[in-house]
Prior knowledge:
By secondary structure, the protein is α+β, with helices and mostly antiparallel strands. The protein has six helices and seven strands. Strands 4-5-3-7-6 form a five-stranded antiparallel β-sheet. The longest helix is centred in the middle third of the chain and has 12 residues, at about 60-70.
Amino acid sequence: MAAESKVNKPFSMVANEGLSIPKKPIPKAFIPKEIWQKLCVPWRNSLIIKLLGKRINYHLLRSRLSREWRTEGEFEVIDVGQGYYVVKFSIPKDCSKVLRGGPYKLFDHCLAVQPWEPNFQPSRAKLPKTAVWVHFYGVPMECFHEAVVLYLGNKIGRAIKADRTTLLATRG
């Protein structure tokens, strides 16, 4: 009888061992692949962004992005936590333009922009790469040629593009 009453209790105190809580299996639900793929479709024209080293008000971020990106269509900014946002574009061309148009700086901080990925979890996210703008001081004007600028960029990482101002030799 004593053994029965112990089994029926939701938890019990065991001398010198503290509280003992029985472990119940955690229920799991799996979404079928076909349904999951349909759920992901509306997010295909989205990006994940994070302003590095600074947190700012949502409305201020939205306003600055609108001014910086000048998209043809609308976009929605969704705060997903840990300083990350998902930006959902109404026009696929805008998403592509923003992804390839960086690097971006807001309030003197780099804005990391990456393609949207299914099941993104901000608490586990790592920024493996981000585009940054690099200024090479002391480079002669004769070297303001796209091939030379990209060559120099590739010495420190993977060069994406040379900025137009440099290539036109209007500023060093």
